Amino acid sequence: MIRGKSFFLAFFSLTxxxxxxxxxxxxYAKKKGTENQQANSKALDNYLKGRKAYxxxxxxxxxxxxxxxxxxxxxxxxxxxxxxxxxxVYSSIGYYKYEVREDYEDYFNRAYTNILKALSLxxxxxxxxxxxxxxxxxxxxxxxxxxxxREVIEKxxxxxxxxxxxxxxxxxxxxxxxxxxxxxxNPNLVLAHVGLATxxxxxxxxxxxxxEHYRKALELAASPQLHNYLGTALRTQGYLHQAVTxxxxxxxxxxxxxxxxxxxxxxxxxxxxFEDSISYQKKALLLNPNYPDAYYYLGRAYxxxxxxxxxxxxxxxxxxxAGKYDRYAGYVASAKESIVRLxxxxx
Length: 347
Known about the structure:
The chain is mainly α and 347 residues long. It is 73% helix and 0% strand.
């Protein structure tokens, strides 16, 4: 559960009653009407370009989407879909930052501001409702995400992203009809392939299926994150050299992508390249000092290279960071045993 703040205090759904005069009698009114149509057309064009970029779900795609959506708003400050689009982008970035233990709150705050603005302009539109559902999903408000996604689907049964949100909010079962429907409606929905791959990996332990969907997502839109995910799926199946290749591709795309350095270091450890493992783990921690895994494998690598002092130090840091997470329980026990074996104090 995300700590700290509740980013959504309230959302207001407003219905805008817009009336148009059937007969524009004055030349001035006709001129203004034409100008508005041209502005709306330009705003829509930028919005659609932003959507295309956003749906790649890559760092560059997000950056381009923000630029296009912002341009649409500059052209038409009341164009609700562009605010909704910004909300989706910032929410997606915030969720990713949260997952990799980087600062995320500012992105969720931006998502909140833009989605609130979108809802105030057009609270019942597909775009605004979908953005709200996605943000609820990212904030782990799963019941709310499910309810809003169902609203969208009831009115727009062809909305693939809302089926994805509904699937993600209701357990992420790889066999669920919701994810199948999402991919039936849009076989190239990157987010659905990534989500399905992750579900196969963690929920089913089907690493082959996970690999297939990560590869499909990469065919659609290469990103450092996807190369990193694919590398881990390959490593888990024992394809260590292929995993190394994927992590290096991630680093080529983003030399500051800390998770790839960490996972490359872990993989090199299993290849008995301990000095190289240490080097990459140190690089990961320079970029982001919040990865328990990096400290654990630094401890193991230092132990393998007969440096008990450094091994103990990194094991202790690992225990401090990882102790509150149940999934690290086995590693914490192993680290404690290693500390005692190396002559450190019992904890």
